[in-house]
Structures are given as C-alpha cells and as structure tokens.
Amino acid sequence: MCISNNATMRLVQSIVRPIAIGCLLTIAIASLQAAAATTDGRNSEMVGDSPEVRDAATQSERQAASARSVAITLLQALDISERQHAGSRAVDVSFVATSGERFYRILTLVGDQVLEHHIDADNGEAGAARIYSTIDSLDQTDRANVSDLMRTGLNLSDAVALAERETTGIVISAGLIRIGGKLNFAAVALCGDRLKEVVLEPPLQSKPRRRGDG
Prior knowledge:
Blueprint: E1 10-18, H1 19-22, H2 32-37, H3 40-43, H4 51-68, H5 74-82, E2 89-97, E3 102-110, E4 113-120, E5 130-134, H6 140-149, H7 156-167, E6 170-179, E7 182-191, E8 194-201
Antiparallel strand pairs: 1-8, 2-3, 2-6, 3-4, 4-5, 6-7, 7-8
Helix pairs in contact: 5-7
C-alpha cells in the first residue's frame, strides 16, 4: 500500500473521551462531527447508574478488548477493500464486533457509486461488495465531501496513519466530515482505556482531478 505524503495535513483537534462515555466503536463516522462538537454537558446525560448506561459501558469495553486482538489492522482492511476495484477510494471505515464475527465496514467510491465492503478482521477475507448508494443520492454535505476528496492528493489511509502516529493508538473508525465548509478527515483511536478523536484538515488542489489525469 502506498501512503501519500501527509506532512501538509493540519491537525484541527484532538479530543479524549472515556470508553464508557464515548461509545463510538460501532457508529458511523458521519456522526463524529456532532459528537466532537458536544461538550461534557450532553455526555453527562449518559453518566449514571441506569441499566442502559451499564450495558453501553460493558459493550464498549468488550468491543475495545476485541479491537486490540484482531489480526488485520484497519489500514490493512482499507488496502484490501480498495484493491477490490481499480481506482476506488475509501470514504468511511468502522470496526464492528458482534458475538459471532469481527469485521471492518468500509465504504468506497467506485465510479458514481458508493460500495459497502465487509473485511474480516481475523483473516482479511473480503465479502461480496454491495451498493450502498449512488453519489447523486447522497445528501449535500456528503456530495461536497466527495467532491473535495477528489481535489486532494490524500486518502483516508493517510489520515489513519497520521492519526495513529499522533495518538500512538489503534484507529477503529475514520471517515469524512465537514467543518466550517471544509473537508476534514476524522478518526477515532483506541488509546489504552480512552478513545481519542482526531480531526485533520487536508490541503485542496485548485481544480478537481479528472479521470485519466496523471
């Protein structure tokens, strides 16, 4: 896998959350912008002694333990998914652990479609991709992110690699978010007993890259 030069990527923010409160292991990265924008005020609503909070904490702890023991890293899973279709680019990845399986759910851009891949976290096997959406069917924010992604020479894997270096942790989800009208890469890393959210702003080229451009 070729990692582009990400030295020009700007670190926007880095937020640390306890695992029991964060509960970000299995949600789509599209929700990260809202989660990162919240303060402890909203998160405090989750703190308590209710069965729901205890169940959420237990589930997060189990998934964290599961993420630490997988054989296939998130970066490896991204590489596997992007090699399924020439020219594809990943836009979202998250680690999912259930009672029966552990896998990475990855969304990639292929032509005018968004495909969903499941990559086994233990052996790297790729299940059959399915059509998740068409680009035209995405909402305005997602379409803007896709357009801007094509104007940067960086990939989601670049952001993941940089986030793991910044946090010295294990990235378990990453994707595209929009802050202040600009594309940003967001990643959630498992760092000991904490989750760290990292947001990175990539530089954009003046014009979108066209197919066939070198």
